Amino acid sequence: MKSSLPALSLVAAASLLTACGGGGGGGSSTQPPMQLGSVSVSLTDAPACGFDAVNVTVSKVRINQSSSASDTDSGWTDITLSPAKKINLLNLNNGALEALGTASLGAGHYSQLRLVLDGGANSNTVIKTGSANEIALDTPSALQSGIKLVNEFDVAAGQRVDLVLDFDACKSIVSKGNSGNYSLKPVVKVVPTALNGISGFVATAALASHVAVSAQQNGAIVASTTPNPTTGEFDLTRLPAGNYDVVIIADGYAANVVGAVPVTASAMTQISTTAAPIAPVVSLDHNISGSVTQNPVSSTEPAQVAALQAITGGPTVTLKYTLTPIGGGAYTLTGLPVAAPRYVTYSATLPLVFATAAIVPPAGQYRVDASATGYTTKSVAAVNVSTTDQANVNFALTP
To answer: What is the pTM of this model?
Structure first.
């Protein structure tokens, strides 16, 4: 969960586009008119790892009632962006949306949604942190037929359905070995449209230290963001209803964790205010590095390496994570605090009062997990960074 640069809000006006496609034979004058509804599609993002810009160029969104329809079958409704729109995903932070368009749809149930990216030169690119060079992403040819998203929805006559596509830039950009090149491996999900979730403020003194805020469940990061660089305000938006652990991590500071924060489907839950922001405590930090091998070697899957701690009487949380190159390789987890996290269970009474948490493994030590799709997760129970960096924490993943 390495930090990314703060993002600016960018919301574009939706354009009304007429549905095209749709199979079936000709009608007669005696048939009743089709009952129409509509769909509106927008794009949002979580922070990216180590980039100043992550650009994708969207050419269309495709919708079909059949979950098995191929890109050449009939029945598609297309929202076509003309010209295709190049979007810096890092501008879509703290709940900001980029509208992709609106289309009319016949009333009914829809089972397939595809996001189609342009494959032209410099359509999909990254700029590494501290660099001015735009690096073209290696884009799989499959993107020309669209990224198939898991989502089903119903359209009622006279009603509009709003869909938000969450493009995870961090997990979508993977390194190609030591070449200095990157591949686009899109990770996109459909998220709730209501502006619900978790909000708060981080003390401005910590904002220069690459602050990252995440909502987690059982140590898995569901959503993440970076605070506003001036005010310290953050919003973790469009979360499915449930309870979340909020983790605030910054280089040179101990982590702050708020356990069991409740989220409803239609409101924001506040965990701190501008008058009483969350103020992290200074801590030394160190790094963990090593390598991950995959046997058999994967030509498409990177591995993820995460540093976790279990809070006694509270949750297990991920403090940092990173991805290896495709097929495995070297990794570094940077800025892991030596001090134990500061922890409090959520209360509606603010300000929350944090205390030093008892953790497993003890302060300055981390459980490190390595995982990849199709492989068994491996763990090292206690990697000690209390006095120095730790290297050669290596993993061999097998199916």
So the answer is: 0.79
Class of domain 285-338+358-397: mainly beta
Higher pLDDT, 234 or 37: 234
In a 10 Å sphere around its CB, with 0-12 CB exposed, 13-18 middle and 19+ buried, how is residue 250 labelled?
Answer: buried
Side-by-side strand order, sheet with 16-17: 16-17, 98-106, 36-46, 160-168, 188-191
Listed in sequence order, the residues at least 6 apart from 347 whose beta carbon sits closer than 8 Å to its beta carbon are none
Mean pLDDT of the chain: 86
CATH number of 36-191: 2.60.40
Name the β-bridge partners of 60: 80, 116
Same fold, 36-191 and 285-338+358-397: yes
Phi-psi region of 39 (alpha: psi -120 to 50; beta: other; left: phi over 0): beta
**Contact predicate 344/351, CB 8 Å:** no
Read off the pLDDT band of 216 (50, 70, 90). very high
How far, in Å, CA of 131 to CA of 129, rounded?
Answer: 6
Would you say residue 25 has pLDDT above 50? Answer: no
Q: Where are the domains of the chain?
A: 36-191, 285-338+358-397
Question: Is residue 39 within 8 Å of 163, Cβ to Cβ?
Answer: yes
* pLDDT tens per residue across span 172-190: 888 877 777 888 888 888 8
134 with 124: CB under 8 angstroms? no
The sign of the torsion formed by the CA atoms of 19, 20, 26, 29 equals positive
Token look-up 């040819």 returns 141
Q: For the purposes of burial, counting CB atoms within 10 Å of the CB of 129, is it exposed (0-12), middle (13-18) or buried (19 or more)?
A: middle
Please tell me the distance from the alpha carbon of residue 87 to that of residue 90, in angstroms, as a whole number: 9
What residues have CB less than 8 Å from 316, skipping those under 6 apart?
Answer: 218, 219, 308, 309, 310
**Which residue type, as a one-letter code, is found at position 302?**
P
- pLDDT, tens only, 354-380: 999 999 999 999 999 999 999 999 999
Task: Burial-class residue 385 by CB neighbours within 10 Å (0-12, 13-18, 19+).
Answer: buried
Parallel/antiparallel/unpaired status of strands 160-168 and 36-46: parallel
